[in-house]
Amino acid sequence: MDTVLWVIAWVLAAVFLGGGLAKVVQPREKLVAMGLAWAEDFSPGMIRLIGVLEVLAAIGLVLPALLDIAPVFVPLAAVGLVLVMAGAIVVHVRRKEMPQVAANVVLLALAAVVAWGRFGPYAF
């Protein structure tokens, strides 16, 4: 199970690092043009904040455990992603964007598994 948690953490880190960096460096109009229609409803500052949180969570999912420095940040980062995905689900439900809701539910579930495993029976 430890290997499964590592794989899930790396997959989540890759997804959120890429998505977070895009939100940090791309202007809102370009994000909307790329298919992130929800960005129309948020200020550029809020989009960047979401991006920064996603990048920090991506780093927190793997780096503390790899360096063996404060590995408790791994499950905390996973909990942070659960919260971000819960917010994303609310936004997409309100916008009636069901395919995005499904993707967010999957990401939330994966982050919850990492949080459960690293807080619980497979802690570092």
Automatic annotation (TrEMBL):
Compartment(s) of residence: Membrane
Keywords: Membrane, Transmembrane, Transmembrane helix
Pfam families (alphabetical): DoxX_2
Transmembrane helix keyword on record: yes
Membrane-related topology note: Multi-pass membrane protein
Keyword Kinase appears in the UniProt entry: no
Transmembrane feature ranges: 6-25, 46-67, 73-94, 101-119
Name assigned to this protein: DoxX family protein
Organism: Actinokineospora guangxiensis
